[in-house]
Amino acid sequence: MIFLGIDGGGSKTAFVLEDENNKILGRIETGPSNWLSAGKEEAGRNIAAGIRQLNSFPDVVGCGFAGAGRPDSIQFFKESLSALLPKAQIFVETDAFVSYVGAIGLEPGMLLIAGTGSIAIGRRPDGSMVRVGGWGPIFGDEGSGFWIGREAIQAALRANDAGEETDFVSSVCEALKLDAITDVSTAWKSGALTVRSVASLAALVFHMYPAESASQILNGAAKHLWLMSKKAIDLVGIPDCRRSIIGSVGNQPLMKQLMRQHPSTRDFDSPVHPPEHGAIIWARSQMAH
């Protein structure tokens, strides 16, 4: 029996093919497959491009996609994959869920995901899942790359209003390719600035630490991520449960250092497997039922 694991997000889609003895038969990566942000056509193209490159056809497909928390999303991904692999048994979940299974497995624990967005998910002893955050860039995603970038823009705008010509303001303008920070609203409305480009400012803020604005922003992000982790662990109900962290922001050594300043924060375990392998672990568990 051959298993295919897929992790589909807003920036890329990763595929891994394994046999029944856990031997990897191939790895493939294509473009984004979050149909809510990339659109159905692009998502479908990137999924199909990955399937076409497989050197063997799978019997079972386990996949996690960004945006798959809604019934219409699940239907879209199942129909897309069924059309490409009509003989395969297909299991669809969210990208956050397969990330959890890859990082921790099927045991109780907590995974903090802090990249462009942020969410903390946990698994209780009875197998039920809990979540804290992950409500998107407009209403949530505190402590994420987008949140850090937005805070940087706001700090630059406040400095401009105060008549301050600072290195921070000029650095933000340069990173966003703006002539002046006051152009930011127009750039956002026109689509020249996107969630991804705002989130990319996080790298600049980390680089500028411990300058005052960067320090304030990153300490705020660390507090948000710590609170999300704490709430998720409380919901899991096991204070010393296994915990892990993934994502471009979460894996920053400085962010881990800042989070350790908060009470009862211990080091996170390294993820055991990548999300696409987590999708296979989950699919195997479903086959066993």
- Give the percentage of residues in beta strands: 15-25%
CATH class of the largest domain: Alpha Beta
Stated plainly, the CATH topology of the largest domain is called: Nucleotidyltransferase, domain 5
- Helix and strand succession? EEEHHEHEHEEEHHHHHHHEHH
| Count of discrete alpha- or pi-helical segments spanning 4 or more residues | 13
CATH superfamily of the largest domain: ATPase, nucleotide binding domain
Task: Give a description of the structure.
A five-stranded mixed beta sheet has the order 3-2-1-4-5, with helices on both faces. It is built from 13 helices and nine strands. The chain has helices at 35-38, 40-52, 71-84, 95-104, 136-139, 145-161, 167-176, 184-190, 195-199, 201-208, 212-236, 253-259, 275-288, and strands at residues 2-8, 13-19, 24-30, 60-65, 89-94, 109-114, 118-123, 129-133, 242-246. Helix content is 48%, strand content 19%. Helix 6 (145-161) packs antiparallel against helix 11 (212-236). By secondary structure, it is an alpha/beta fold. 46% of the residues are buried.
